[in-house]
């Protein structure tokens, strides 16, 4: 199958210098692209000078993760898109298990590899780990990562199974499905757009898979650090937008109401810890959500999957019942 590995870049010359060599070394089956989001550093000149086989697609402005990929992929011809963060180190034979799954399972539209921590390679990485799920209230979690608790990789997730969402850090999708779904939602800019896309794919009857035979290592937070208030803003806002678009109709307003309360509690927690900027980020996220609510309500499909979560409340399981790992 014709596969394109597409690395979105914005002022990431140091990351490209460090991680692009592994992608080139271990991806003989693929054509490698850099999708540049109007970088102002010397990313492009560095790639042109050092990696002549890499193709470059330039976006005129920084469109974020969602819009950046949407625009760049218009110019890339392949059966499979491998959307790979610039801070990912790939391993030998990482593509073969993915391609084999796509070839053998026509209903599988999206696949995620095993994502381990580049800095602590025996541990799962925050952004995706061993495949993602969401709870009843729309909070994402992973096999191998619940909130900030990361599991050590002891082979407990050495399987190939169906999941709810695949991480955007290393995200494989059939190009035909990407086009059918009209790509990522550009309103999101960045964060949780991959969960929204996966949910929309499930609503269309497609399957999302995790494949442990493909392994990558992710730095995480290389573009936007975990403690950045902008990340808080995007995560809280985009989560509400995603719920608005994809929740079953009979759950929509009740779950949104519950989330407003839970978001308020989270804001008070930030305030109690002296993180005033994060408290303001939640207020700003809700304000932006209200402005975008009607337009996103119109994006709802006719069918929404009713089996969208694996537990009633991950917040309750984690903080009250001490469910710090996926098995609990």
Give a brief description.
The chain is of the alpha/beta class. The protein has 10 helices and 13 strands.
Question: In terms of topology, how is this protein built?
Answer:
Layout: E1 3-9, H1 13-25, E2 30-37, H2 43-50, E3 55-59, H3 64-73, E4 80-84, E5 88-90, H4 96-104, E6 108-117, E7 132-134, E8 140-142, E9 145-146, E10 149-150, E11 160-163, E12 170-174, H5 175-180, H6 193-203, E13 207-218, H7 229-246, H8 252-272, H9 276-297, H10 314-319
Parallel strand pairs: 1-2, 1-4, 2-3, 6-13
Antiparallel strand pairs: 4-12, 5-13, 6-12, 7-8, 9-10, 11-13
Helix pairs in contact: 1-2, 6-7, 7-8, 7-9, 8-9
| Residue runs with pLDDT of under 50 for 5 or more positions | none
Helix proportion of residues, in percent? 25-40%
Largest sheet: 9 strands, mixed
**Percent strand:** 15-25%
